[in-house]
Structure formats: structure tokens, C-alpha cells
Amino acid sequence: MTVLTPERPISRTPRKPTGLFIPELVYFEPDALSYPKGERIMEWVRERGIPYRMTTSHNRITNLPGEGEMEQYKIAKRTLVVGVRKTLEFDQSKPSAEYAIPIATGCMGHCHYCYLQTTLGAKPYIRVYVNTGDIIAAAKRYIEERAPEITTFEAACTSDPLGIEHITGSLSELISFMAEEPLGRLRFVTKYQHVEPLLELAHNDHTRIRFSVNAGYVIRNFEPNTSRFEERIEAARQVARAGYPLGFIIAPIIWYDGWQEGYAELLAKLAQALPPEAGKDLTFELIQHRFTKTAKAVIEKRYPKTKLEMDIEKRKKKWGRWGQNKYVYQGEQQNALREFITERIFEHFPAGRIDYFT
Ligand code: SF4
């Protein structure tokens, strides 16, 4: 039994719910407007009076407003780019799925540790793709190639697709498609609470919705511009009631003064909040904090006051899949984190499953 010391007194002032993302500027590739989704997004943009421009390619936005790199970065995070996805070869997505299914690239969140900081480099704006029909057709080919094995697709490798679902509707299309595929499965993870459009869909248990959760310290200090913990949990309750397989990704797991209380409190709060049906098929994925030297340099430039600890001397080097060393916690710290969080999970969710710790 864990004795909990709340990390912070509960605030009594009700806060406004986290709103839907409304971009401040939108770019369209001309070709995107020949797709129904492109037309719909244009209509949505015009109805709201959002300024828009045309661009020759969603991969090369050269006239972003803003003085200097920092201001341009902030503006880019509020900029939507609507284009046609040309590359229909899917990347691998281990350990969570076989393939990454590309419906968007970029995110409006400002999580200090986010790996998109590095992978998107100078293109942090939010790209959405209107040719979901082509993307779904490609997914179908991947499923057929691997038959009779089940093929799982991860829709959140390069963005948080729920945060832009009210603009694109792409997740709903994928969920509906996958519901009809005996050998296809979908999963995505989110830090947003806007699940309403998904609740009435026929999903056939083929989509697992996971919420990214963390200790209060981590959410408060490193996850600006995302939904609050309570909002994510309320959304988790709703998707559990809608019968979706549910999961939680605890990432990045961070070693800080008081981490035991923080992670114990997290798991206790989850157990308290979830309806009993959520516990039947509940998964957890555990990812310790890691960074590369490139990421460290970018993060320190973009969030100069961050409290994120990135001391290479304190870390253990691990060879990364993309050819860059990454820095994870030392073996003893890793074990302590894994063991403690695993015990808390099974204490509260005896039927839960831990998919991996990495
Ligand atoms: S919500 Fe997810 S994708 Fe968006 S910035 Fe945060 S970690 Fe990155």
C-alpha cells in the first residue's frame, strides 16, 4: 500500500477547459483544394476568418512571418499547412506497432522534451494531409502483405492527431476503415481531451486509444499547451465507456526529487477515476526520458528556462536507431523507475498489461 503525499494543494478556482486548436495562419497547396477534405478545411478556415496563403509545397514554407528564429518557431506552432501526402511508404514504428500511418506531421503542443523538436528540424508547423483515401489504400496493401498476421498502425508517430481531429476528421476515417479490417489495428496516443467525434463511431475493438499521462510535476513543468491531466482522464473515461480498448503511455518517465510520490499519485488517481470496464483490457507503455545531443541543443535554444535535466555526465549512452547516440538513465535508476512504477500499476490494475519499458 502506498501512502501518498499530494504534490500540490488542489486549486479551488475552476479553470476554463482547454479549447480546440484554432490556427492563426493556414497555408494550402493548390492541389489540396481538389480533394473534398481540402475544400472542407478551406471552408472551415474562411468561416472563421483565419488568414490563409497558398504554397507550392507543404514541405517548404519559406515566408513564415516572425522576426528571428524564436518568434518564427512560436508562429509555426500555430500554423497549419494543408497538403497532399506524396510518400505513401510507411515507416516502421517499433515497439508500439508495425507501421506509422501518416495523417499529420507536427503538433501545437509545446512539450519541452518532444522528439519532434529534432525530427522536424526547421519545419515545426502542423502539416495535415487531405488524401486520406490514398493513405488508407496504402494501409490496406500493408495489411494484405502481412496476412494472416495482424498489422498494427500507429497514427501518432509524428503528431498528436486528436488535437487536430476537429479540423481534419482523419482519425475518424482511419477508425472506421480499421473496424472493417479483420487483420488491421489502429492505435494512437494523445495529450488532448477532444474525443467527442470518436465516441459514436463503430470501432469493432480495432482501435486502441492511449492517453499520455505523467506525474503532476512533469505535466506542470514540461507540457505547455496540452490538455490538463484531469481533462485527459475524463476523456479516457469517455472512450472506455464507448468500448474502445484503452491504454496509457507514461512518458517520459523523469527522475526528479519526489518522483516516487509523483508516480504513485498518478497511478492512484487513474485507478480512482476510471470506470470498472476500463480495467478489463488496459495497457501501459513505459518510456524513460532520453535525449540526443542534437535534441539537447535545440531544446535549450527553444525553451531556455527549462528545468529538464539533460546532463550527459549523469546518463548512460545508448545506440539509437537513427544513428545518433541517445542518453538514458543509468542502469540503477532505470531499474528503480521500472520496478516502482510496475508495482504501482499492478497494485491498482491487477489485470493490466505492461507492453514495454524502454
Ligand atoms: S503533445 Fe505530443 S506531439 Fe505534441 S508537442 Fe507534446 S509530446 Fe510532442
Helix and strand layout, with pairings?
Layout (H helix, E strand, L loop, with lengths): L24 E4 L7 H12 L4 E3 L13 H9 L2 E5 L15 E2 L3 E2 L10 H4 L6 E4 L2 H15 L4 E4 L10 H4 L1 H10 L4 E7 L16 E7 L2 H7 L6 H13 L4 E8 L5 H15 L8 E7 L4 H10 L12 E5 L5 E5 L1 H18 L4 E5 L1
Parallel strand pairs: 1-2, 1-3, 3-6, 4-7, 7-8, 8-9, 9-10, 10-11, 11-14
Antiparallel strand pairs: 5-6, 12-13
Helix pairs in contact: 9-11
This protein binds iron/sulfur cluster.
If you had to describe this structure to a student in words, what would you say it looks like?
It is a single chain. The protein has 358 residues and is of the alpha/beta class. Helix content is 33%, strand content 19%. Strands 4-7-8-9-10-11-14 form a seven-stranded parallel β-sheet, with helices on one face. It has a single domain, classed as pyruvate-formate lyase- activating enzyme (Alpha-Beta Horseshoe). The protein binds iron/sulfur cluster. The site of iron/sulfur cluster (SF4) has 9 residues, from loops.
